[in-house]
Design a protein that fits this description.
The complex is a heterodimer of chains A (324) and B (336).
Chain A: H1 3-26, H2 33-58, H3 66-83, H4 89-113, H5 118-137, H6 149-153, E1 158-159, E2 162-163, H7 164-182, H8 184-194, H9 196-201, H10 206-232, H11 243-253, H12 265-284, H13 289-310
Antiparallel strand pairs in A: 1-2
Helix pairs in contact in A: 1-12, 2-7, 2-8, 2-10, 2-11, 2-12, 3-4, 3-5, 3-10, 4-5, 4-10, 7-8, 8-10, 11-12, 11-13, 12-13
Chain B: H1 7-10, H2 21-45, H3 52-60, H4 63-77, H5 85-101, H6 106-129, H7 135-154, H8 168-171, E1 173-175, E2 178-179, H9 180-197, H10 200-210, H11 212-217, H12 222-248, H13 259-269, H14 281-300, H15 305-334
Antiparallel strand pairs in B: 1-2
Classes of the chains: A mainly alpha (324), B mainly alpha (336).
Chain lengths: 324, 336
């Protein structure tokens, strides 16, 4: 939360506004309230996942398993809904984060209790969780006609001009900033990642902070599992394949340091919106969907170059999170 | 740059990260035992496994990935990482397909594959050394970029204008049952092993991974090493792309999706520390063989590929976690 990070958030904010302005120049419909509401609705899941990932990155770890967690939890609640349509949406809304938290806690325990580097742990659980999606579903799809209308419609229901999904993302942003700025556990995440030794001597259990971060990230991924399945109205094994890298990219563009200890909620939201605006604007401009990956790859690469330049002062510490 | 690890919570490092040759040697013996066990299990579970041709087919199952895993091991030992390797394979395959489509011969196609890989690796190296982007972040970006270019060029099309002589690289046999791919892998493994374990270059790579700052002040051109390691990983990805494209006989933009994780899994399972500084090529070769045996054996039993990923992931975590747990339990037992 030092001055340079705030400056960078403002810089990224200006860049996002500039991007919007350029798009608006050609496609005024994009920046109407309705167009923007669609962008927020489309970016909501990315924002939530990026917030969860930020908690993990702050503690000098990384969670590569979020997309697999999302797919597994999403498939489980979809199967639940298909088998017991009468259960309703509220139990699903509670169950999804709990399942996700369990999967995240498994990562957390391995990092905390066994001291295995997080990149190794989550690389392993990424494969395991993704494979389990296939096992629990038998490789079959759960289609929209198997899901109950309530299960599908709740997330898309409009409320005060925005979808429920968008409001959940906004609530996530508020909760994350309160957690990180007002609670001891949240402040400890910064301390644990910024300097693990100093944090330990200050009485902070670094491993436990990491465990907490992984559990929260897992809970968010689980919730997003339901949101994703309901929004796209289909569950299958390859849901959100590779999405973890977009989530990490949103964090990095938003100024979260991969070396831990640095990052703001505002930055992460802007980073996710930046990617979301590009993703939504490209089809409008008539860009072929096949070009979108290359363009977003180029944008991510340029953004990380600019980002690396703006915090040149500390030495590079790639993978040192693993020391923790 | 190195962090003192707080004793309270993280004194224990995972076994493969343990320093010193003796520990590492034990790690390779453990791997060898697991390999032997899986081999025995496969022979017991499937009557077709012990056929010489089956065993020869088995080698196709891991050699392409293992060829990238070799320089990746050097890169991770030097405390860097490259997530874009599968993207490089796709990009190189597309370039080869275009070159072949333009009517060039096999020699030009192979050269195009190698050069594309080398160039892509150099881009990664430049991002890390010149632009100071952390490797994991830089290669996440270039991963989308490289594969994205492949999608942009091909869309939902495929390239398959390869000349007949090109098929040899991925489908040919060098001698009897020994595939050409296997020979390439064996030669590269020996070369990498010698470079890492016998030459000054290898000592320096380990020194960089153990403590980059100290390595820099002892006169090692750290950034130059990093750059060339990235370029080397790119080149190896180009070579893997030649073998894979030749074996499949066609190029689609989704070629080799997800391979980066399998390749990195091979390296870590092989006992290379993700923290840098420690690792051996023998371990990586054994890990590649192990993953090849496991996935091939499960394939013989008609287990779908996605379920195999559970086994691969479980293997990665289990093989690292179990020795730590075992050591804890024995340490607890020794206490009076």
């Amino acid at each position: 939360m030092t001055l340079p990070t705030i400056n960078r958030d403002i810089g990224l904010g200006l860049l996002t506004v500039l991007l919007l302005a350029v798009v608006a120049l050609f496609f005024p419909a994009f920046v109407t309230p309705r167009g923007l509401a669609e962008v927020i609705d489309d970016t909501g899941i990315l924002i939530l996942l990026a917030l969860g990932q930020m908690l993990v990155l702050l503690t000098r770890s990384v969670d590569l398993s979020v997309a697999a967690n999302l797919a597994l939890t999403g498939m489980l609640v979809a199967l639940l809904n298909a088998s017991y349509p009468g259960v309703g949406v509220l139990p699903v809304l509670l169950l999804a984060p709990v399942i996700g938290a369990g999967l995240g806690a498994f990562n957390g325990v391995l990092v905390w209790r066994l001291g295995i580097p997080s990149i190794v742990v989550t690389l392993g659980t990424l494969s395991i969780y993704r494979g389990l999606v296939f096992v629990v579903s038998g490789g079959a799809w759960v289609n929209s006609n198997q899901m109950s209308p309530a299960f599908l419609d709740t997330v898309r229901m409009p409320m005060l001009g925005l979808s429920v999904l968008s409001w959940m993302a906004i609530a996530g942003v508020v909760l994350a900033s309160l957690f990180l700025s007002r609670t001891t556990a949240g402040r400890n995440l910064y301390a644990a990642g910024d300097n693990p030794s100093a944090a330990a001597y200050a009485g902070i259990d670094v491993g436990r902070s990491q465990f907490l971060a992984f559990t929260l990230s897992g809970a968010i991924a689980g919730l997003c599992g339901y949101l994703w399945i309901s929004r796209f109205a289909v569950a299958y094994t390859d849901v959100a394949q590779g999405f973890e890298l977009q989530v990490i990219a949103a964090c990095v563009i938003g100024g979260v340091s991969i070396a831990g200890g640095v990052g703001t909620v505002a930055g992460v939201v802007l980073g996710a919106l930046f990617l979301g605006i590009i993703k939504n604007a490209l089809p409008l401009m008539g860009v072929s969907p096949f070009w979108q990956m290359a363009i977003s790859g180029l944008v991510i690469t340029i953004a990380v170059i600019l980002n690396a330049r703006s915090d040149r002062a500390p030495p590079r510490r790639i993978l040192e999170e693993a020391a923790a | 740059m190195s962090i003192a690890v707080p004793k309270e919570s993280h004194a224990e490092r995972p076994v493969p990260a343990a320093t010193g040759g003796r520990r590492l040697w034990r790690w390779e013996i453990l791997l060898l035992l697991v390999v032997a066990a899986v081999f025995g299990f496969n022979a017991w579970a499937s009557p077709y496994f012990l056929d010489p041709w089956t065993l020869s087919d088995l080698t196709f199952n891991f050699t392409e990935k293992a060829i990238v895993a070799l320089p990746m091991a050097l890169l991770i030992i030097a405390r860097e990482i490259d997530i874009s390797v599968a993207g490089i394979i796709a990009l190189a395959s597309v370039v080869m397909g275009l070159v072949a489509g333009a009517g060039f011969g096999t020699g030009a196609i192979v050269a195009a594959g190698c050069l594309t890989g080398l160039a892509a690796g150099a881009v990664n190296g430049a991002l890390v050394t010149t632009f100071r982007v952390p490797a994991i972040v830089a290669t996440i970006g270039t991963m989308s970029l490289f594969r994205g270019v492949a999608y942009a060029v091909l869309g939902d099309q495929a390239l398959r204008d390869y000349p007949d002589s090109f098929a040899f690289f991925g489908q040919g046999y060098a001698w009897g049952l020994i595939s050409f791919e296997m020979v390439v892998f064996a030669v590269l493994a020996m070369l990498t092993g010698v470079v890492l374990h016998v030459t000054v270059i290898g000592r320096r790579i380990k020194a960089i991974g153990s403590n980059p700052t100290a390595a820099f002040f002892s006169g090692i051109r750290v950034d130059r090493y990093r750059f060339w390691l990235f370029a080397l990983v790119g080149l190896a990805s180009g070579i893997a792309s030649i073998l894979l494209t030749s074996r499949l006989g066609s190029t689609r933009p989704s070629i080799a999706v997800g391979w980066e994780l399998e390749i990195i899994t091979m390296v870590i399972l092989g006992g290379v520390s993700i923290l840098g500084g420690v690792g051996s090529i023998a371990g990586v070769v054994l890990a590649a063989l192990l993953i090849g045996l496991v996935t091939f054996g499960l394939g013989l039993l008609n287990v779908p590929g996605i379920v195999m990923s559970i086994v691969t992931g479980g293997l990665l975590i289990g093989v690292i976690a179990l020795p730590i747990l075992a050591r804890r339990l024995t340490a607890r037992g020794e206490r009076p």
